[in-house]
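chain below, 436 aa
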Amino acid sequence: MQPVVEKLSGLERRVDLVVSLADVEKEVQAQLKRVARSAKVQGFRPGKAPLSIIERSHGPGIRYDVINEEVGRSLDRVLSETKLRVAGTPSLEPKTEGVEEGSLAFLATFEVYPDVELPDLSSLSITRSQCAVSDADVQRTIDILRRQRAIYEAREGRQAGEGDRVTLDFVGRIDGEEFEGGKAENFPFVLGQGRMLPEFEAAVTGMSAGESKTFPLNFPEDYGSAEVAGKTAEFTITVNEVAEGVLPEVDDEFAKSLGQAEGDVEKLLADVRANIEREVKARVQARTKGSVMDALVTACTFDVPKSLVKNDAESRVAAAREDLKQRGVPNADSVPIPVEAFEAESERRVRLGLLVSELVSSADLQAKPEQVRERIEEFAQNYEQPAQVVAYYLADRQRRAEIEAVVLEDNVVEHVLSNAQVTDEDVAFDEIMGTN
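prediction:
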């Protein structure tokens, strides 16, 4: 007889589970006898204690486990016969009414996976991003590398400006009192790198060695130190030195400092361009992927299992706490992080996961071994010894699985692009790199 499945709200379902007490007791007695063969009980030789004593000491625990196992088997049979796919963990509660003598009954409540109806891909509008790397982009990257290796030379009478290294003494006071972290001597920083608050840098700009100044500074509400966040301090600064950054020439020594063993400048420029193009390609693909996923999730409105959304949101809370720990935030384990703050994004992630899974299955988009190897080889070019990276990823099952997941998503994106209405969009280099 087909089990009766009660449909509750949305994806929730409920079924009755019945367990025979006779079957439970039969298994309990069998396990008690097995335990009795080797049980050590005070006053008896090992394996010689009466079964009644073993029953008193081990019976309750064994009976509890056996009932759980029988309920689990009963649920498995129901799910197999009804072909229901459970999402999350079922909840069980004893049933007391209408239970036949000699039986135990439970109500199992759970959610099922939805029937995912894929959208008509030809109706989706997708924006495909593209970005060309110019010689000017390569040169700007070279200039950044030069600034990172600048040598600073003190200049008498020089007024501090962007790119200069300023060394100064400072002391800050709030309501006339010095505060922790608000005082330093011979403190160096480079103007324009964002190491100091904008008001502090603005006050220093234009000053020369030997000059002093007192000025107010408003700490942001979200400043890292709660002691000063949102408060106004008065800083007194004395500039000790203003040093101009002298950039290295793009020559063989510069090339060697960047790992180009032969000191070949042309090869260095080619390597820099190749690295930039790889990074741009990855960012363009991520941008296009975002457009594809947005279009997919917007086109589908099926219900998603609340249990999966909750699990995802809770995992994001755990990740947020771990991030706070890494940042050295005190009480990271107890700081309030509401699960509700992640629920909307978690629901989107779950819906996308179900959509992608259905697309992969229906269009046979699984990652092929040759695709995985090609992606690993491409990724390995970011390292000095690509061959070792390739071997490492191919030998490590977990790492290989990570790449397979990336390739699978790429396959989904390409499949959608080949069927959807696609508009190509040129994106500026600064925008795609996040430097504008």
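The mean pLDDT is 91. The chain has three domains: 5-112, 121-131+277-433, 150-246.
thats it, cya
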